[in-house]
C-alpha cells in the first residue's frame, strides 16, 4: 500500500515537471501541517521540515552546528597531547550555555565542578551541593558538549565512606549524568577508591594539593606544599593516585616550582590551578575568568579575568529596560504582520464584545 501510494505521487510529480512547470514551494511552520495524509507527505515532512521550517518560537537549543566540527577528545587524545608536550586546556561549565560556549571555544576538557555550588546555586561553599544537583547539571552540560572530554566532580559525602559507595556514585555520573569520567579529591587515602573506580572502566581525574572539600581540616583555602615536608606530601599523594589509575590529576594552590617538579616525576598529566605554568595543562572556573560577577567580588590570585561578561550583560539588560519603559521596544521590525482585510474583519467582529 505504501509503495503504491508513493509511486502514484511520484508519477504525478514527474508528469508535472515534464510539462515544464514546478510544483509550488511548500513552507512548513510549527503550527501547520500538510493537507494530506499520504505516506509521501510523511516522508516529505521528516526529510524537509528542518530546512523549510518557519519558526515563530526561540531557536533550537543546539543552535547552528559548528562549521568546522572537531574530532572527539578521548583519553587517547589526552595521552597523546601529554606525550608530545602540548598543554591541555580545561574549564568548568555548569549548564547548557556555559558548556556550549566552552566546547565551541575548543576546550579539551570540560569539568562540571562542584564550584557550581557557589557560582550557579548561590551556596557558601562546595560542601553544600547535593549529588542529585550535580547530576542535573552534568546532564545539562553533556547535552552541549560534542568534542570536549567531560568530567563530573563527585560532591562531598558521595564517595568518602567506602570504595563501593564511590563506585556506585561514579556509575551514576556516567549513566545518569552522561559524563565520560569523574573527579574526586584526595591523595594516598583515596588510592583504594580510585583503583576500585578505574577497574570498573571509569576514567578518574585526581585532585591533590589544596582540596576545597577539606578546607576545614586544612585551616581554610591555604596554599599547600610551601615547605619541604609539605611539598613531599603533595608528591607522595600524586604518586599514590597515579599508581591507583588516575589518567591525570589537578594540582591546586601549590608553588609553581613544586608543581613543576611533581609534574616531571609523574607519567600522567597534571592540570594546574594556582600551580604555575609548569603543569601539563590548566583549568579555571569559567565564571571567574569571563568576569561574570559584580564589581568588588574577591578573586583568588591565580585567576586572570579574560572578559567582563557582567558589565556587558548589565548594559544590555539596562538598555532593554529603558526601551520597554519608553515603548521603543518592540519596534515594528520585531512584530508579526497581519493582512489588512483580516485585521479589519477582526476589528469589526469585536466591536460589540
UniProtKB/TrEMBL annotation:
Signal peptide: none annotated. Keywords: Pantothenate biosynthesis, Transferase. The keyword Glycosyltransferase does not apply. Residues 13-72 are annotated as: Disordered. Residues 16-39 have a biased composition (Low complexity). Residues 49-61 have a biased composition (Polar residues). It is an enzyme of class 2 (transferase). One of its GO terms (molecular function) is 3-methyl-2-oxobutanoate hydroxymethyltransferase activity. This is 3-methyl-2-oxobutanoate hydroxymethyltransferase. The lineage of its organism: Eukaryota, Fungi, Dikarya, Ascomycota, Pezizomycotina.
Amino acid at each position: 500500500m505504501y509503495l503504491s501510494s508513493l509511486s502514484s505521487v511520484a508519477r504525478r510529480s514527474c508528469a508535472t515537471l515534464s510539462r515544464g512547470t514546478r510544483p509550488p514551494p511548500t513552507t512548513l511552520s510549527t503550527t501547520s501541517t500538510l493537507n494530506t495524509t499520504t505516506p509521501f507527505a510523511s516522508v516529505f515532512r521528516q526529510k524537509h521540515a528542518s530546512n523549510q521550517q518557519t519558526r515563530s518560537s526561540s531557536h533550537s537549543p543546539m543552535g547552528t552546528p559548528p562549521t568546522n566540527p572537531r574530532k572527539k577528545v578521548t583519553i587517547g587524545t589526552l595521552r597523546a597531547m601529554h606525550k608530545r608536550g602540548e598543554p591541555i586546556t580545561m574549564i568548568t561549565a555548569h549548564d547548557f550555555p556555559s558548556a556550549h560556549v566552552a566546547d565551541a571555544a575548543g576546550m579539551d576538557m570540560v569539568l562540571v565542578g562542584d564550584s557550581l555550588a557557589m557560582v550557579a546555586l548561590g551556596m557558601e561553599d562546595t560542601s553544600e551541593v547535593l549529588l542529585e544537583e550535580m547530576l542535573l547539571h552534568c546532564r545539562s552540560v553533556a547535552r552541549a558538549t560534542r568534542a570536549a572530554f567531560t568530567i563530573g566532580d563527585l560532591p562531598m559525602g558521595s564517595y568518602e565512606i567506602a570504595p563501593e559507595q564511590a563506585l556506585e556514585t561514579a556509575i551514576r555520573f556516567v549513566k545518569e549524568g552522561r559524563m565520560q569520567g569523574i573527579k574526586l579529591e584526595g591523595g594516598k587515602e583515596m588510592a583504594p577508591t580510585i583503583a576500585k573506580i578505574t577497574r570498573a572502566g571509569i576514567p578518574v581525574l585526581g585532585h591533590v594539593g589544596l582540596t576545597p572539600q577539606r578546607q576545614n581540616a586544612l585551616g581554610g583555602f591555604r596554599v599547600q606544599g610551601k615547605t619541604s615536608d609539605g611539598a613531599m606530601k603533595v608528591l607522595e599523594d600524586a604518586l599514590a593516585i597515579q599508581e591507583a589509575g588516575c589518567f591525570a590529576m589537578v594540582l591546586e594552590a601549590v608553588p609553581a616550582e613544586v608543581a613543576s617538579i611533581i609534574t616531571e616525576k609523574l607519567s600522567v598529566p597534571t592540570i594546574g590551578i594556582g600551580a604555575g605554568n609548569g603543569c601539563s595543562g590548566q583549568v579555571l572556573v569559567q565564571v571567574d575568568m569571563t568576569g561574570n560577577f559584580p564589581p568588588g567580588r574577591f578573586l583568588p590570585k591565580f585567576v586572570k579575568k579574560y572578559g567582563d561578561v557582567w558589565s556587558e550583560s548589565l548594559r544590555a539588560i539596562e538598555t532593554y529596560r529603558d526601551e520597554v519603559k519608553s515603548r521603543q521596544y518592540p519596534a515594528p521590525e520585531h512584530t508579526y504582520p497581519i493582512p489588512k482585510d483580516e485585521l479589519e474583519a477582526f476589528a469589526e467582529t469585536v466591536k460589540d464584545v
